[in-house]
Amino acid sequence: MATKQLKEFTREEVAQHNKPDDLWIIIDAKVYDVTRFKNMHPGGAFVFLDEELMGQDATETFYGLHRHEVLEKPQFIRLVVGTIKDEKPQIVGRVPGALSKVPYAEPTWLSEGYHSPYFTESHKRFQKVVRKFVDEVVFPDAMAREEDGKRPSLSVIEKMAELNIHAMRMGPGKHLKGLKLMNGLITPEEFDYFHELIINQEFARHGQRGYGDGLNAGGIIGLPPVMNFGSPEIRDKVVPEVFSGKKFICLAISEAFAGSDVQGLKTYAKKTEDGKFWIVNGTKKWITNGTFCDYFTVGCRTDDGFTVILVERGEGVETKPIKTAYSPTAGTSYITFENVKVPVENTLGPEGGGIFVMLSNFNHERWMICCSAVLAQRLCVEECLKWTNQRKAFGKPLNSQAVVRSKIAGMIARLESGQAWLENITHQMNNMSYKEQSKYLAGPIGLLKMYLTRSGQDTARDAVQIFGGRGITRTGMGKYIEHYHRAAPFDAILGGAEDVLGDLGVRQAIRNMPKNARL
Ligand code: HEM
């Protein structure tokens, strides 16, 4: 498409257009004719009818009230009639794939002048491609779906499948064997937990927590029991279906009656007399992706105790949406199973051994939540640094107030300590067998998650104070902060409640106390 050749004006020429029926303003060296637009302006026409604004430079005023993305919308680009002679626009919007230059907006390993003991050239190459994919494919869909409340578009799921991102989100392992990862950018053998950390963090950069969960979060926790405990027949059918984005799976454990207290669960699976089928009856609540899943990895009480069974959507399975604080894009559901007949071959792991099946994936799930929880804090810091720099109060930028700087100092310290601990744990994961990870990392991962969700909620609260009314408004300047403040408690609940996880970490430490330790 040919770009419109823009005329050049001097500031004096623009100043002639200073009347309500001939009204121009300058924003970042671009000249806008707002004569007709002022009557449609969401902030009202009145704001334009200011002697100090008509025909003048409104850059500072504009950025105190709007996000830059407003000017990137086609209906507003059309208002541009020219540029200022010998001046160039300075403000850049979101460039797909680019790194932010705002301090602390990127982890140190991606920041100019810093070093990392963990990340290699392979990780750097990988990060670039994932960021571009998220910016170009995921970000626009996240914004649109948060707006209309629909599940993530299948076109995004399919594009992720083409690059084998669904498979990579299950972590390194033999399930990657033979797959072409990111169009062959890295080999399955090369893929490690730092690559996965990159996916988890880059995929959280759109800041839409509900959409993030809608994008197969159910699969990440629902598929591992199939991969690790399903019969070869079940595995060979279900795993490729989910990796290719053709089918969806979720984990269905919690109920209105009980969550972590599996003894209190009521969903019951009873074998038919011939022993060939389970008959499943019961309900499940808060099941992420449940509204659109084809398969459900269900925790059931059985005669032998607690058993995990793979249930396929069909007769007797009903799902309905639950309205949560984040958004319907996550597909959070209430599920009823009524006399659902399931072949016994769908049992995942030993009968009565369901606890072990469930526990086996907890560390990975919690670590994954840690990755995105840190990133969410990082976005928050970037938003606060930008806002306090461009917004003026009492004639000075907000960041000239010590109380504001003190809040940001706390945010940065919490964020960077969280990222550093996360990278350390990720390094341990890369160097430990699965068994060692369970032994040495369950406690630290629990403590890290507790730390990140507590500090995340502190950061969300401080950010709302910094943004004021905008921090509690769903559109405009504070929209990411409003969303984060609303969604931060999810991380503190999903995958294990904050206090329970902190306690787990300390109990593990107590268990490992040397017998002869004394003050
Ligand atoms: C080309 C120029 C402008 C465009 C395209 C524009 C567009 C918009 C839009 C889309 C909104 C809705 C809120 C949002 O999405 O952020 C808005 C709100 C607003 N605008 Fe503008 N605007 C322009 C210039 C200005 C100027 C120069 C002023 C100030 C004198 C102004 C004052 C406001 C105010 C006070 C609001 C309400 C903000 C709020 O609710 O927090 N606008 N504008």
TrEMBL record:
<keyword id="KW-0408">Iron</keyword>
<dbReference type="InterPro" id="IPR009075">
    <property type="entry name" value="AcylCo_DH/oxidase_C"/>
</dbReference>
<keyword id="KW-0560">Oxidoreductase</keyword>
<dbReference type="Pfam" id="PF02770">
    <property type="entry name" value="Acyl-CoA_dh_M"/>
</dbReference>
<dbReference type="InterPro" id="IPR001199">
    <property type="entry name" value="Cyt_B5-like_heme/steroid-bd"/>
</dbReference>
<dbReference type="InterPro" id="IPR018506">
    <property type="entry name" value="Cyt_B5_heme-BS"/>
</dbReference>
<dbReference type="Pfam" id="PF02771">
    <property type="entry name" value="Acyl-CoA_dh_N"/>
</dbReference>
<dbReference type="InterPro" id="IPR050741">
    <property type="entry name" value="Acyl-CoA_dehydrogenase"/>
</dbReference>
<dbReference type="Pfam" id="PF00173">
    <property type="entry name" value="Cyt-b5"/>
</dbReference>
<feature type="domain" description="Cytochrome b5 heme-binding">
    <location>
        <begin position="6"/>
        <end position="85"/>
    </location>
</feature>
<dbReference type="InterPro" id="IPR036400">
    <property type="entry name" value="Cyt_B5-like_heme/steroid_sf"/>
</dbReference>
<dbReference type="InterPro" id="IPR006091">
    <property type="entry name" value="Acyl-CoA_Oxase/DH_mid-dom"/>
</dbReference>
<dbReference type="Pfam" id="PF00441">
    <property type="entry name" value="Acyl-CoA_dh_1"/>
</dbReference>
<keyword id="KW-0349">Heme</keyword>
<comment type="similarity">
    <text>Belongs to the acyl-CoA dehydrogenase family.</text>
</comment>
<dbReference type="InterPro" id="IPR006089">
    <property type="entry name" value="Acyl-CoA_DH_CS"/>
</dbReference>
<dbReference type="InterPro" id="IPR013786">
    <property type="entry name" value="AcylCoA_DH/ox_N"/>
</dbReference>
<dbReference type="InterPro" id="IPR036250">
    <property type="entry name" value="AcylCo_DH-like_C"/>
</dbReference>
<dbReference type="InterPro" id="IPR046373">
    <property type="entry name" value="Acyl-CoA_Oxase/DH_mid-dom_sf"/>
</dbReference>
<keyword id="KW-0479">Metal-binding</keyword>
<keyword id="KW-0285">Flavoprotein</keyword>
<keyword id="KW-0274">FAD</keyword>
<dbReference type="InterPro" id="IPR009100">
    <property type="entry name" value="AcylCoA_DH/oxidase_NM_dom_sf"/>
</dbReference>
<protein>
    <recommendedName>
        <fullName>Cytochrome b5 heme-binding domain-containing protein</fullName>
    </recommendedName>
</protein>
<dbReference type="InterPro" id="IPR037069">
    <property type="entry name" value="AcylCoA_DH/ox_N_sf"/>
</dbReference>
